[in-house]
Amino acid sequence: MRAKRVAAAGFAGLAVFAIAGCGSGKTNDSGGGAGILVGTTDKVTSLDPAKAYDNGSLLVETQVYQFLMNFAPGETVPKPDAADKCGFTSPTVYSCTLKPGLKFANGDPLTAQSVKFSFDRMVSINDPQGPAVLLDNLDHTDAPDDKTVNFTLKKANDQTFPSILPTQAAAIVDEKVFAKDRVLTDDEVVKGKPFSGPYTISSYDQNKLAEFKSNPDYNGLFGKPKTDTVTVKYYAEAANLKLDVQQGNIDVAWHTLSATDLDSLKGNDKVTVHQAPGGDTRYIVFNLNTQPGGNPAQKLAIRKAVSTSVDRDALATNVFKGTWAPLYSPVPKGVAGGTEPIKDIYGAKPNKDMAAKFLADAGVATPVELNLQYTSEHYGPSSSEEYAAIKSQLEATGLFKVNLQSTEWVAYQKARSTDGYPMFQFGWFPDYPDADDYLRPFFTEDNFLRNHFGDPKITAELNAELTEQDPAKRATALATVQHDLMADYMPIVPLLTGNQIAVAGKNVQNVDATLDPTSKFRFGVLSK
Q: N or C: more exposed end of the chain, with fewer CB within 10 A?
């Protein structure tokens, strides 16, 4: 999630208010060029990495926390950040050596013990809304001295572990600030100043306004930020975000403008709409315990019937104006290892006759009543239109009666992870650009979706692709997982995949440099 992951994504906002000097080209006192004002509708779930697995939290974490390895702008192979070097010392041990003299903004030293504490804490707390699921192959972490960290893995030759080190599960925190057994409040995090990334947080009003200052002690992959002060302003309404960026009241709009707004802004000569492949995905998730159906066979038939009834092309074209595309697998086709099993097995177009046969063969009476939940603001302003269209498509078959409800994001997150919804909207942004990241978090036992899916066959297939060192054989193993999931289980219904999009004033430089499949929007590359 990334659900930025997830993929996950988002912050709640405020009514728009004026900020003196922001977006006006005012020069910072520290001499780092004109300050930049970023606007977003995303919500921050938490500043504590143990609980944060969403786009809004990732935006902050990318700036203020350091990682052993990270993704340079535009690159998909991780490089050392806090680490001086990393690599396998045996098939089951991945070892990193830290750079000398690292420290947090509060003056505390950042050592191998800090790294061990961070990973031990993430696994121990295992918050249901957090990213600990990404560390499912980590057996334990050791710090034999101040500069060495050894990760012992459960499965040998894990081809994804280096790419997991730049994710939200691997942010390095200060053991003198963070409690080992509980999630900190945002106020506790800000006051503790446990930041070692390119920026620190100088002021913070959750989901209203946050100010970031360049960290003079940062020693990592990205170097000194091009802009010393960046302010993030959070919006309740995407319409106000659009208005402010087109009028020059903010410099950059990042997540999430409607497809209609983006289309209109492309004709505005004061801004540039920047777009690049991103790999974001949208699904309907079924809770296998609470979804309709009297037995497993009936439940599977209902899931397949829903998948073969939705019109993905119509959603992409009519709702999203071509900024999203149809998705026929949990993995977008543009990601290495991605295939399109739904198109191959069931066809690209909706098929009412096929859907009806699934239900009839399983003895399911129609119309099937579906309680479908979505969140009206977290995945962008088009969600209401998207789910109204899905309801219309399903009911037009005569096979379904859809009860559609929306919920604010914070309550939504809690309810969907505690059996609150039989069917629900879910979005995913990749933690790292690999097909495994679209599969393992969702389809292992005790997965991030908390939808009670888990099967030994799929687990075995995921283990096989994870540890296969031959790229061609690994691609085949990934294709097998995707095919079997959609043919035999269908625990989610893939719908759409989208791009990374930001709208910026003409005087903002280097926006394109940070739009890439890693989903990391890096303030440090931006300048005016």
A: C
Residue 277 pLDDT: 78
- CA atoms 487, 492, 495, 501: torsion sign: negative
The set of residues, in sequence order, having a beta carbon less than 8 Å from that of 476 and lying 6+ positions away, is: none
Is it the case that residue 4 has pLDDT exceeding 60? no
**pLDDT tens digit sequence for 170-179:** 999 999 999 9
Q: Tokens 């990934």 appear where?
A: 478
Q: Which two tokens stand for residue 313?
A: 């092309």
Burial of 365 (0-12, 13-18, 19+ CB in 10 A): exposed
Residues 375, 492, single domain; the answer is: yes
Q: Note whether residue 181 is domain-resident.
A: no
Same domain, yes or no, for 392 and 475?
yes
Same domain, 408 and 485: yes
**DSSP bridge pairs for 33:** none
The residue that leads in pLDDT, 11 or 406, is 406
Residue 370 maps to a domain: yes
Q: Is the predicted pLDDT of residue 22 greater than 70, yes or no?
A: no
- Say if strands 36-40 and 492-505 run parallel, antiparallel, or are unpaired: unpaired
Contact by Cβ (8 Å): 478, 439: yes
Q: Structure tokens of 444?
A: 């292992």
The total number of structural domains in the chain stands at: 3
The tens digit of pLDDT for each residue in 99-123 reads 999 999 999 999 999 999 999 999 9
Distance CA 127, CA 51 (A): 6
Transcribe 385-427 into DSSP letters: HHHHHHHHHHHHTTSEEEEEEE--HHHHHHHHTTT--SEEEEE
Mean pLDDT of 147-165: 96
For the purposes of burial, counting CB atoms within 10 Å of the CB of 459, is it exposed (0-12), middle (13-18) or buried (19 or more)? Answer: middle
Nearest CA-CA partner of 146 in 98, 188, 206: 98
Same domain, yes or no: 236 and 306: no
Its domain, for residue 510, covers: 36-64+186-276+501-525
**Length of the chain, please?**
528
Residues 470 and 383 in one domain: yes
- Cβ 46 vs Cβ 52: under 8 Å: yes
Pair 294, 191 in one domain? no
DSSP 287-308: -TTTSS-SSHHHHHHHHHHHHT
φ and ψ at 306, to 5 degrees? -65, -45
The residues near 433 (Cβ < 8 Å, ≥ 6 apart) are 76, 163, 279, 335, 336, 517, 518
- Report pLDDT digits (tens) over 432-489: 888 998 998 899 888 889 999 999 999 999 999 999 989 999 999 999 999 999 999 9
